[in-house]
Protein: Type I restriction enzyme specificity protein
Amino acid sequence: MSDVPHLRFPEFSGEWEEHTLSEYLEFKNGLNPDAKRIGSGLPFISVMDILSEGVINYDNIRGKVNATEKEIECFGVKDGDLLFQRSSETLEDVGRANVYMDNRTAIYGGFVIRGRKIGNYDPLFFKYLLATPLARKRTCRMGAGAQHFNIGQEGLSKISLYFPSIEEQRKIAEFLSLIDERIATQNKIIEDLKKLKSAISLNVLHSDKWEQFKIKDIAQIGRGRVISSIEIGQQKSPTYPVYSSQTSNDGIMGYLDDYMFEGEYISWTTDGANAGTVFYRNGKFNCTNVCGLLKLRKEFDTHFVSLVLAEATKKYVSINLANPKLMNNTMGNIQIRLPKLEEQKRISIVFRVLQRLWTVHNSLLTEYTKQEQYLLSQMFI
Structure:
């Protein structure tokens, strides 16, 4: 393995040095208070804080705990301390780390291991170093367990990584923090767009003055067919999406050479944990048998109706069953209020613009995240 990274600032040269984490950190498990003490007191760092975006500081810690002076002395965190996730259901997440950057005292919990600063390092650089591919590989190697994967103080102590001079550490940390700031800004923009959409929805998608309709009176109701992963894998020129019951990736489970439907439709998930989730579809596509379809009459705007329907379906899902369902007959009897077509189209335009903005900013977030992952793989050993 090379002792220098692939990508480096030109003012730095020389090899990076390999050191164990125990040369920089002294490890200790966290506090396990009884439930009565949780909810007030000092900020109480948990795994959720370690996994959150950005560094941990006094003000962004979610929990609180009442602690004695002795516990504060034993389980307090100081500026520059590293905090590690002890246990995880997946090997990929065991030993995830974050850094505490604040001069005010906080407490850390029992599912967390503190790395107390005993060596000379840049805290922010250390956070990025622990997220690099090599660091994650060596950390996961120390994970053990059956149902849960765990890492302890001894395992963390033995992990060895490569460190440059403190000056180069600071330079790398400053550079990567700029990307982190941009990612945080992008997340804020996306969150604000979601809030804006929700606020507009409350004001423009409901009116007692609008006429009431049953879905079966304004749309043809159908569903897709059984499409297996084997069939998807046998396609020669997979072009047209297959929509299924899943909600991630816009509901796409794969692609086929041909298509079953063309034009504007509303689809919804009929079975499973996502039953009742509504999507607007437009184009050439396929649907599985757990995907219901509505083809609206011409005097209704399909996109607008999908917005109204998306807010109505959840209360019609049969949740008493082991497998939640929203079947065709139930969908047909759902009643919604709709304005005249002209108003439907005007309101629809507003939401289309919001959706385009969300898509653009979400794509930017994806690219910034990819950029950071690339730099983590190239600027470190």
